[in-house]
């Protein structure tokens, strides 16, 4: 059985420049901007990013898993009782979808295909 590993973590940010300055100064993380509303970080032990939001941040972390076949893993998520919250969509570098588990935790799964 193929495992699906945690591959990426996304946080929300109300101010990307302030967020980047905090994490760079405090922890030495480096950043790559992907437009005005998203920045990716590295040098943190696991790669991730910050997405700009104007909404109040109550649960600001999105765990992103990796699987080579999004359709197959999406079907398995649904069969196990998960609910898709964002259908498969493209982004720079690949595709992904979001889902909630049986407890309501939101996660995403991505693939470069």
Keyphrases for this structure?
113 residues, alpha+beta, globular
C-alpha end-to-end distance? 20 Å
Q: How are strands sequenced across the largest beta sheet?
A: 2-3-4-1-5-8-7-6
Average residue-wise pLDDT: 92
Secondary-structure-derived class: alpha+beta
State the helicity in percent bands.
Answer: 10-25%
One letter per element, helices H and strands E, the order comes to: EHEEEEHEEE
Please report the total strand number as a whole number: 8
Task: Sum this structure up briefly.
The chain is an alpha+beta fold and 113 residues long. It is 19% helix and 45% strand. Strand 6 and strand 7 form a beta hairpin.
What does this protein look like?
This protein has 113 residues and is an alpha+beta fold. The chain has two helices and eight strands. 12% of the residues are buried.
């Amino acid at each position: 059985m193929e495992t699906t590993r945690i591959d990426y973590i996304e946080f929300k940010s109300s101010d990307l420049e302030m967020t980047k300055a905090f994490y760079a100064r405090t922890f030495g993380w480096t950043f790559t901007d992907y437009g005005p509303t998203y920045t990716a970080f590295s040098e943190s032990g696991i790669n991730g990013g910050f997405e700009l939001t104007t909404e109040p941040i109550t649960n600001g972390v999105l765990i992103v898993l990796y699987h080579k076949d999004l359709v197959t893993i999406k079907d398995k998520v649904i069969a196990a009782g998960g609910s898709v919250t964002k259908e498969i969509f493209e982004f720079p570098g690949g595709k992904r979808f979001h889902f909630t588990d049986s407890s309501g935790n939101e996660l995403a799964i991505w693939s470069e295909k």
